[in-house]
Amino acid sequence: MGVEAVNERIIESLDDVEEGAAHLSGLCPRMAHAHALTAPLPLRRRPDGFAQLLNAIVSQQVSVAAADAIWRRMQAARLTGPRKIIWASDDALRAAGLSRQKIRYARALAQARIDYRGLRRAPTDEVIRRLTEVPGIGVWTAEIYAMFSLGRADVFAPGDLALQEGARLLYDLPERPRERALREMAQAWAPWRSVAARLLWAYYAQMKQREGIR
């Protein structure tokens, strides 16, 4: 059983994921089909904090291989903490692989003084609001952070193209649902929307033979 953050369930273990998947399978035959095809689902928990969000900024609009290479260079140069980013020259950040825009985003994140410990106890809506105030962090990134770094059980990221395509395939829809339509569709999967996301990503990967998320 996960611990509580405010009044929200936290996914901490594979048992929590399976509890959510069992709930969804009982709720919807198509979810049950996806679960039978893809079980066991991954936990996908990540650390929280500055470095995780900086990594997300690094990953924007580049391939997984390119993002991994840039992040390795930043780690080697010890450019993964807020003070290091503030003190680093633009030339040093460019040498690690950051574009001019990403340098601006990285500095904005470093200067935002986010209370990462406080976010662990904040309601998900407040987490997303606070994070999206920072230039370079959109709703998708904030939702993924809440889902995987904070372990929130009832978060979804309907702007994710792999989730949209996974829903189209699983529910035999004539076209890929847009963000607003998928957000409405996902309401039926509460209070386990982040497990529904894991199911759809896994189903997408099974059908397309490729991963849906880094």
Radius of gyration based on Cα positions: 18 Å
CATH class of the largest domain: Mainly Alpha
- Can you give the helix content as a percent range? 55-70%
| Strand order in the largest sheet | 1-2
The ordered string of helix (H) and strand (E) elements is: EEHHHHHHHHHHHHH
Q: Proportion of β residues?
A: under 5%
Number of domains: 2
State the distance separating the first and last CA atoms.
27 Å
Proper CATH architecture of the largest domain = Orthogonal Bundle
Question: How would you sum up this structure, described in words?
Answer:
The chain has 2 domains: 4-45 and 154-208, Orthogonal Bundle (Endonuclease Iii, domain 2), CATH 1.10.1670; 50-149, Endonuclease III, domain 1 (Orthogonal Bundle). 62% of the residues lie in helices and 2% in strands. The chain is built from 13 helices and 2 strands. It has a two-stranded antiparallel sheet. A hairpin with a 2-residue loop joins strand 1 (4-5) and strand 2 (8-9). The protein is globular.
Summary, kept brief:
This protein has 214 residues and is mainly alpha-helical. It has helices spanning 14-27, 29-38, 50-59, 64-76, 82-87, 90-96, 100-111, 116-121, 124-132, 139-149, 161-170, 179-186, 193-208, and strands at 4-5, 8-9.
Notable characteristics:
214 residues, mainly alpha, Endonuclease Iii, domain 2, Endonuclease III, domain 1, two-stranded antiparallel ribbon, 13 helices, 2 strands
